[in-house]
Amino acid sequence: MKKSDFYYDLPPELIAQTPLEQRSNSKLLVLSKQNGEIKHDAFFNILNYLKAGDCLVLNNTRVLPARLYGTRTDTGAVVEFVLLKQRGELLWECIAGPGKKAKTGNSFKFSDKLSATVTDVLEDGNRILKFECSGEFYSVLDEVGQMPLPPYIKEKLKDKERYQTVYSKELGSAAAPTAGLHFTDEILEKLKENGVNVAFVTLHVGLGTFRPVKVEEITEHKMHSEHYFVSNESAELINKTKKNGGRVVCVGTTSCRTIESVANLYGEIKECSGDTDIFIYPGYNFKCMDALITNFHLPESTLIMLVSAFSWYENTMRAYKEAVDEKYRFFSFGDAMFIE
Fold this sequence. Notes:
Blueprint: E1 27-31, E2 38-42, E3 55-59, E4 61-63, E5 67-72, E6 78-88, E7 91-97, E8 107-109, E9 114-121, E10 127-133, H1 137-144, E11 170-173, H2 185-193, E12 197-203, E13 226-230, H3 232-243, E14 248-251, H4 253-266, E15 272-276, E16 291-295, H5 302-311, H6 313-325, E17 336-339
Parallel strand pairs: 1-17, 3-12, 3-14, 4-11, 14-16
Antiparallel strand pairs: 1-2, 5-6, 5-8, 6-7, 7-10, 8-9, 9-10, 12-13, 13-15, 16-17
């Protein structure tokens, strides 16, 4: 298939710029992959679509406030850095802009507690920063850093926690697993009371999730790699669900990519960790996932390709057109789909 097959017209005003006051008040488009039937609902009614014996798979990664603005100590130039990956003790690989003002040996001050020096410039232009910190690094980062919001969000986020899921735990992401932003503690408790199991996996989302597909032939696209971890407890819960005939319901494409990566490697879900660059597009044979909760994704993105692989291409593109017609809110702070 071609990249252009996944294009759809989206009026800019439908790109959600801020989260709703109540997480669960977003709209919910319910799509049947079997017959293509579409229903419109509210997310707080997700309880009506999940059954006792189902297993909800949630990505419990936590977003780092990874965007930092540093002042160069010799010239006063301001450079933006986004932390990508930890390379050692207080050593981080970062994106820098403008890069010409962040050369090897340049030092930057971010606050009275945090400074850094560029120790290397990589082939792809990323920088290696060696930080100096007076205090616990992540606590200082939480004070100084900003959320690395996607480029299509222009509004400033008033509350950092609104770009975190209520169950976020494992620090390491540069972007939120946004399908989970709709859940509240109350909804999760009610699901458990109704006999729905909850399994947590971890996939640290990289900024590569926003990288556009640049080739027209989608099979030529090179996916970015992201680190994941699955605990023994979660593996046993997912395997038990499959054995007992329940549905494995992934919350977000990141949870989907995690368990499908593991299922492809081992034929089942087991305790493990690693890096995955799995690229799921139409024609893919799903090994584990039975249903998906997800947001509405960018045109021509790898994420809409994943959704199309699961719910079938024609169903997906028709559902997206209806969502536009019904003025759903799109992307990270937007509304949700449930595909079963």
